[in-house]
From TrEMBL:
The keyword Membrane applies. This is OmpA family protein. It is found in: Cell outer membrane. Residues 76-196 form the OmpA-like domain. It comes from the Bacteria. The keyword Protease does not apply. InterPro entries: Bact_OuterMem_StrucFunc (IPR050330), OMP_bac (IPR006664), OmpA-like (IPR006665), OmpA-like_sf (IPR036737). PANTHER family: EXPORTED PROTEIN, STATOR ELEMENT OF FLAGELLAR MOTOR COMPLEX. Its main location: membrane. It holds the Pfam family OmpA.
Length: 199
């Protein structure tokens, strides 16, 4: 018993010093990214990664998505999957339709086949401009979140790879003055930026 007390008395200060040293290294770092691994550090600053994404890039043909009513844009580094509201959701709702789930399954498979599990994903929700900005922002977020939840729960994606962003009524692709234009503006975009391969 006495040996156990002596051992405890010796180990407790060592434990405290270790914890304090870790805290000190974090406090002395200019940013948490300094403590990240090389791969993580490259991807830590999200804004840098996304600065050069061309959301108006060329349309790509993806045989896996033939007949899925999904527009695919991008290049060797970036892929943007665009699905209009009527494909994924009912009007003014944020619950995925059964047909929308089928589309997401095809998109998820395509992402896996083209990224090998690497890269970052942003799910962006867009609306038309009929309701208030706050309402549209909330609806865009709820829809993007529904897609993210499906990707992580059913698509096999790590939640650390995905970030949800609501654009609301920002960045319309068509005019909001017509029903057809508003329908085009109500959409979700899944944007995938592949992590550069180390040489």
């Amino acid at each position: 018993m006495k040996n156990l007390q002596i051992l405890t008395a010796f180990l407790f200060p060592v434990f405290l010093f270790s914890c304090s040293d870790t805290g000190q290294r974090i406090e002395n770092a200019d940013s948490v990214s300094e403590m990240a691994t090389v791969d993580t550090a490259v991807w830590f600053d999200d804004d840098r990664v996304w600065e050069n994404v061309d959301f108006e890039g060329p349309i790509r043909e993806e045989p896996e998505l033939a007949g899925a009513d999904v527009t695919v844009r991008g290049n060797d580094t970036v892929t943007i999957y665009q699905a209009n509201e009527d494909i994924l959701f009912d009007l003014d709702k944020a619950q995925l339709r059964d047909a929308g789930v089928e589309k997401l399954q095809k998109i998820a498979e395509n992402i896996k086949n083209t990224t090998n599990g690497l890269g970052k994903i942003r799910v962006m929700g867009f609306t038309d401009s009929l309701a208030s900005k706050a309402y549209n922002r909330d609806l865009g977020r709820e829809r993007a979140k529904a897609v993210e939840d499906w990707l992580t729960s059913n698509g096999g994606f790590d939640s650390n790879r995905i970030r949800v962003i609501s654009k609301g009524e920002q960045n319309p692709v068509e005019t909001n003055a017509t029903a057809e234009g508003r329908q085009q503006n109500r959409r979700v975009e899944i944007v995938v930026v592949r992590m550069p391969q180390s040489s």
